[in-house]
């Protein structure tokens, strides 16, 4: 039966299982590790990928077809083994490439060094007429190894939900970075195609120490950061930043221009360390501060128990004032999901 290898956050594996059960009732074949499993789809991968895309799952992060499942022999990687396993992929790589090889080792017992495997397999496929392209490839040759087994498949990268191995989008740290939280907004910007434009006004709720404010300032926005705590030292004197050192509820009452009119913002972002429902309710109270056509980004912190119910209640609160555009658990989210909203309701 046709199957996919799928990936989600380790702590969200049960929520992901429920999503896949609703999409493909054929069922879970097995988990390799929490967060990586094999699911029987009962359909070819292009159709399965399109079905997943239409379903817009929140917790499912990455998929690829299971086309090679084999035991890794004791002698390990050899040229003969590579040719035996990967020769069937050559016609598609020649016709539909360029390709990238994305290998992950899920345990240390297998004794597979993923970089050596990726290099050796890529070299073989290039020798057979393939074109290697690491960034934005047309095709992804995906594989995971676990307990001396390999699970691999070739697919159009666009159908995998993410072009990154396992959906694990990583960003490089930079000098003066104020917080790792910046990666969450960077990933949301890329995933959802958010357009932060120079000169726009942004309101950053729960801003300290300033990871999200820093991203917005770097894009040329004028940022009002709201948090009782201090901002990172490197941000305090940056042009374009105003820090309201107090609670968001007080800010909502007091923020006005010189004529006493409420200030409006093109973007309202919220990464507050607050219960998901309470944070969404506070965000909804800010709807009058969003300019026409404005947008918002909020992380919803989910509890360990009854996370799905908490998320749905939070989304219902957001929907009272906003149009909810996307909801997704990104790689840099842990026990939370990212929601993108638009001002004004249909």
CATH class annotation of the largest domain: Alpha Beta
SS strand fraction: 25-35%
Question: Which ranges are low-confidence, i.e. pLDDT below 50, for 5 or more consecutive residues?
Answer: none
| Category from helices, strands and their pairing | alpha/beta
Query: What shape does the CA trace take?
Result: elongated
- Contiguous helical run count: 10
Strand and helix order:
EHEEHEEHHEHEEHEHEEHEHEHEE
The total of beta strands comes to 15
Overall number of domains: 2
Radius of gyration: 23 Å
Q: What is the architecture of the largest domain at the second tier of CATH? A: 2-Layer Sandwich
The spatial strand order of the largest sheet comes to 11-10-9-12-13-15-14
CATH topology of the largest domain: VC0802-like
Distance between the termini: 42 Å
Average of the residue pLDDT scores: 92
Helix content: 25-40%
Largest sheet: 7 strands, mixed
Please explain how this structure is put together:
Helix 3 packs across helix 5, helix 6 packs across helix 7 (211-218) and helix 9 packs parallel to helix 10 (307-319). The protein is 29% helix and 27% strand. The protein has two domains: 3-167, 2-Layer Sandwich (VC0802-like); 182-343, Rossmann fold (3-Layer(aba) Sandwich). The mean pLDDT is 92. Helix 5 links the parallel strand 6 (99-105) and strand 7 (139-146). It has a seven-stranded mixed sheet, sandwiched between helices. It has ten helices and 15 strands. With 346 residues, it is α/β, with parallel strands linked by helices. It is elongated, with a radius of gyration of 23 Å.
């Amino acid at each position: 039966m046709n199957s996919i290898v799928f990936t989600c956050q380790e702590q969200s594996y049960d929520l992901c299982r429920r999503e896949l059960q609703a999409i493909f009732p054929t069922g879970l074949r097995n988990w390799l590790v929490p967060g990586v499993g094999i699911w029987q789809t009962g359909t070819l991968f292009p159709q399965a990928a399109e079905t997943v895309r239409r379903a817009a799952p929140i917790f499912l992060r990455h998929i690829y077809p299971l086309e090679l499942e084999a035991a890794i022999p004791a002698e390990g990687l050899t040229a003969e083994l590579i040719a035996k396993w990967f020769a069937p992929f050559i016609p598609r790589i020649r016709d539909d490439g360029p390709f990238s090889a994305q290998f992950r080792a899920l345990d240390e017992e297998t004794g597979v060094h993923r970089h050596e495997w990726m290099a050796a397999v890529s070299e073989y496929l290039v020798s057979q007429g393939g074109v290697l392209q690491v960034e934005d490839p047309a095709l992804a040759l995906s594989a995971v190894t676990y307990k001396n087994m390999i699970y691999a498949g070739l697919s159009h990268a666009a159908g995998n939900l993410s072009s990154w191995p396992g959906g694990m989008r990583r960003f490089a740290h930079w000098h003066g970075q104020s917080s790792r939280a910046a990666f969450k907004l960077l990933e949301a910007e890329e995933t959802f195609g958010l357009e932060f434009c120079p000169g726009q006004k942004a309101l950053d709720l729960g801003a300290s120490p300033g990871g999200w404010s820093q991203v917005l300032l770097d894009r040329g926005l004028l940022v009002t950061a709201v948090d009782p705590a201090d901002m990172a030292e490197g941000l305090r004197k940056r042009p374009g930043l105003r820090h309201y050192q107090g609670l968001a509820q007080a800010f909502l009452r007091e923020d006005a221009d010189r004529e006493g009119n409420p200030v409006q913002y093109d973007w309202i972002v919220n990464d507050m360390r607050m219960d998901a429902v309470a944070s969404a309710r506070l965000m909804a109270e800010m709807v009058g501060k969003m300019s026409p056509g404005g947008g918002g980004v909020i992380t919803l912190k989910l509890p360990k128990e009854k996370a799905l119910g908490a998320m749905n209640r939070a989304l219902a609160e957001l929907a009272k004032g906003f149009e909810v555009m996307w909801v997704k658990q990104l790689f840099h989210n842990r026990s939370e999901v990212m929601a993108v909203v638009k001002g004004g309701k249909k």
